[in-house]
Amino acid sequence: MGLTARIRTRDGWAVQHAVVTVTDMAGAQALRAEADAEGSVRDTTELAPGAYTVIVTAVGYAPAAASAIVTASGRAEVGTVTLARQGGTELPPPGPWTIDPAHSTVGAVAQHLGISSVRGRFTEFAGTIEIAADDIAHSRVQAAIRAASIDTGNGMRDTHLRSADFLDVERHPELVYRSTRVTAAGSDRWKVHGELAMHGVVRPVDLDLAYLGTGSDPWGGTRAAFRATAELRREDFAMNYNQIVQAGVAAIGTTLKVELEIQAVQGSALPQV
Fold first, then answer.
1. Is 137 helix (H, G, I), strand (E, B) or coil?
2. With 90 as the cut, is the pLDDT of residue 209 above it?
3. For residue range 105-161, what is the model confidence (pLDDT) as tens digits?
4. Per-residue model confidence (pLDDT) at position 87
5. Torsion angle of alpha carbons 143, 147, 153, 155, nearest 10°?
6. What are phi and psi of 255, to 5 degrees?
7. Which phi and psi (to 5°) does residue 145 adopt?
8. pLDDT in tens, 71-81
9. What kind of fold does domain 95-266 have according to CATH?
């Protein structure tokens, strides 16, 4: 007899010490219990058969309600109750996360001749994410990208991009991004405010970030996934090279759309696999 329930976040994390309150159809409290460290509730209080309302609360989360039917045996199995973070904002659990370059992509798209796009990516980069426990706005992102690792699928074009006309990798071997703060932009969307150092110039650059969730990997770790975009103007980073073709159309667009697909592993180091 009694009530059982599991309290989880949207991504399946246990919500420790959530409070479960059960009321009957008249609104009278019939049971009050606290979830354990695994987010589980196993209470043996005897309840009369019938319909009940289960209300789950936890610090930092929006309350959730569920229905429960107590059978003639006196047992009520609520199942899993999912809590959303207060205000609907979601990010992975607090602590350090390490970007996994093998399962991440740092790419950019430029317009070519005004009619099509050329895509490129950087193949060598590293970075860390720190999810703040006290105030999510204090979370931090830092990443370094090896400029010479640019790859657009064309050797001649890549050599030109590494030259002083563009990235000038001999004098500026790295692109470095450091965040300054994070603000919520939706239930699972964030604005990462920060600065990008590229080609010897530092400019403010904001990332539009979507948090895609977390999950286990085959090596015993936990991974979080993110997608982010930003738009850069080449002139802001002193990359002014261009050619004008017929009708005054620029060979290369003046803006770059940055596209990031990021997997990060929980902890301060990547697993050895």
1. helix
2. yes
3. 999 988 753 445 788 999 999 999 999 887 888 999 999 999 999 998 989 989 988
4. 57
5. -170
6. -115, 155
7. -125, 130
8. 888 788 888 99
9. Lipocalin (2.40.128)
The values of phi and psi at residue 147, to 5°, are -60, -35
What pLDDT score was predicted for residue 1?
60
Q: Are strands 116-122 and 40-43 parallel, antiparallel or unpaired?
A: unpaired
Tokens of 57: 């609360």
Write down the H helix ranges in the chain: 155-162
Amino acid at 254: T
Token pair 């970075």 in the structure block, residue: 127
Burial class (CB in 10 A: 0-12, 13-18, 19+), 268: exposed
User: What topology does CATH give the domain 2-86?
Assistant: Immunoglobulin-like (2.60.40)
Amino acid at 26: A
Instruction: Show the tokens assigned to 186.
Output: 């939706």
Q: Are 97 and 264 in contact (CB under 8 A)?
A: yes
| Domain parsing of the chain, residue ranges | 2-86, 95-266
Cα–Cα distance measured from residue 244 to residue 205, given in angstroms and rounded to the nearest whole number: 28
Distance CA(36)–CA(84), nearest Å, equals: 18
Distance between start and end Cα atoms, the chain: 46
pLDDT at 115: 47
